[in-house]
Amino acid sequence: MAKAHFFLIPFIIFLISCGSDSTNESTSGKKIFRYNESEGITSLDPAFSRNIENIWACNHLYNGLIQMDDKLNVQPCIAKEWEISEDGKTYTFHLRNDVYFHDHKLFPNGKGRKVTAADFVYSFNRLLDENVASPGVWIFNNVDFSEMHDFKAFEAINDSTLSIYLTHPFPPFLGVLTMQYCSVVAHEIVDYYKHDYRNNPVGTGPFQFKVWDEGNKMVFLKNENYFEKDSDGLRLPYIDGVAVTFVKDEEMEFLKFLNGELDFISGREGGNKDEIFTSKGTLKDEYKEKITMLTYPYLNTEYLGFLVDEELDIVKNSPLSKKYVRQAINYGFDRKQMISFLRKNIGSPANSGFIPKGLPSYNASIVKGYEYNPEKALELLYAAGYPNGKGLPEITLYTTANYVDLCEFIQHQLSEIGIKTKIDLNPAGTHRELVARSKLNFFRKSWIADYPDAENYLALFYSKNFTPHGPNYTHFKNFEFDKLYELAQKETDDATRYHYYQQMDKILIEEAPIVPLYYDEVVRLIQKNVEALGINPVNLLTLKTVKIN
């Protein structure tokens, strides 16, 4: 089947190249960075930057107080410097005085006004507004609205000084503030457009909004007044704009890239990948002259989740409510073989805990996860009352089209130990919604780090974070886990905090509310005329320093 796709490539490329492209026509002679979003973009409001498609778009348009470089070091952005109080509960930021919102008709004379500390107070309070209903409300769970600070968690001391008050020390907080949720927005614009702000965005970023033809294209143009400069004093960005298309078919997306109509694609999806990549996941020789491939450990754990809340009707009578059955599933398939056969060794089998490789608290010698052990799986099934799977009802595993091959691999290997599974497919958006509403017993999911600290992963199992108000999709609840989580949140010593993280990870392995599959890897394919497109462990797309030759 792969070869059939391969022979079709020249013909399809010819058809693509003969088609008209209004985006290319309107940007003729400009240096425009072009990429595709097969999953679509749902909002350009940073309060809704929940998925990576929205995050990338918001990263082009907005800035926050601080930012991360490709090595995940916190760097200044709108804030030029900051201090943290000795008790770890007050963060004070000093802002630059040369940052302006994009020009817009709602500003006096149509010129963007200067950003002040009050704009951050507005933006952060808006994120917490129930009427906005941002999915990022949880990131400020630790801010202090008590009487001690006149009921203000965010305070503009003056135009260039902002203080944020926390209820207790929280070492990952700087990382939290680098998220796109924390971007600054202008109250005049948001208040005018209200719910329609999603497609009328005004930020401070390197690019400003031009057009969004939903389902077809999106265009951002260079912000000529952007405040950041390179080491030679040249104003960023270098390119003239960004054009995003929304081709849903990943194979067609790949062909457009091969034809030079896209400057970059993320990942290796598409039916022709076997013709492009070797069995080890590297580019074949004939493509090395045409394409640059970058790879990097990705702070992304792919997993299967079990709904374990026995107060829910769909859990009460399910065999998945039994820990031994969940453990048997974890032992019942070969992760190494799965990564080798289905992912060309891109990524690592998740034979440790939920915390992925790339984080300093990851330690496979301390947190020993599940290896392929069908004999142990059979023992656990027997202990659960299902000898050789006898009497065990068929289990439904819910997933999306992109992960059918992985789920079918698991389905086949589980059948060999008597665990019968059915695979049910849903569109990606529907799947996310059903998981968030606790409607699925057994589901495929992934977690990409919002900020580079294991707390972000372990928050998925803290009992106060049950969906839909938090990221605890499994409804896992464990007293010892919660106690360790709360201790870790207050611990400023890294070694002690990492110890707490590892103990929590061990609890997850023992109680098995999840089936860790693999720790992912970022893969970027880039045209040869594109320079300085970096790569990072959170797969954030940053284009302000990119050059196109």
Quick structural gist:
By secondary structure, this protein is an alpha+beta fold.
Main attributes?
single chain; 549 residues; alpha+beta; Dipeptide-binding Protein, domain 1; Dipeptide-binding Protein, domain 3; 3 domains; 5-stranded antiparallel β-sheet; 4-stranded mixed β-sheet; 29% helix; disordered N terminus
Can you tell me about this structure?
The chain is built from 18 helices and 19 strands. The protein is of the alpha+beta class and 549 residues long. It folds into three domains: 2-47 and 49-55 and 206-290 and 528-548, Periplasmic binding protein-like II (D-Maltodextrin-Binding Protein, domain 2); 62-187, Dipeptide-binding Protein, domain 1, CATH 3.90.76.10; 298-521, Dipeptide-binding Protein, Domain 3 (Dipeptide-binding Protein, domain 3, Roll). Helix 11 (323-331) packs antiparallel against helix 13 (374-383) and helix 17 runs antiparallel to helix 18.
Layout of helices and strands:
Elements: H1 2-18, H2 22-26, E1 32-36, H3 52-61, E2 66-68, E3 74-76, E4 79-84, E5 90-95, H4 117-128, E6 154-158, E7 161-165, H5 173-177, H6 187-193, E8 207-213, E9 217-222, E10 241-245, H7 250-258, E11 264-266, H8 273-276, H9 285-288, E12 291-306, H10 313-316, H11 323-331, H12 335-343, E13 348-349, H13 374-383, E14 395-399, H14 404-415, E15 421-425, H15 428-436, E16 442-448, H16 455-458, H17 479-490, H18 494-511, E17 514-527, E18 530-531, E19 547-548
Parallel strand pairs: 1-10, 14-15
Antiparallel strand pairs: 2-3, 4-5, 5-7, 6-7, 8-9, 9-10, 11-17, 12-16, 12-17, 13-17, 18-19
Helix pairs in contact: 11-13, 17-18
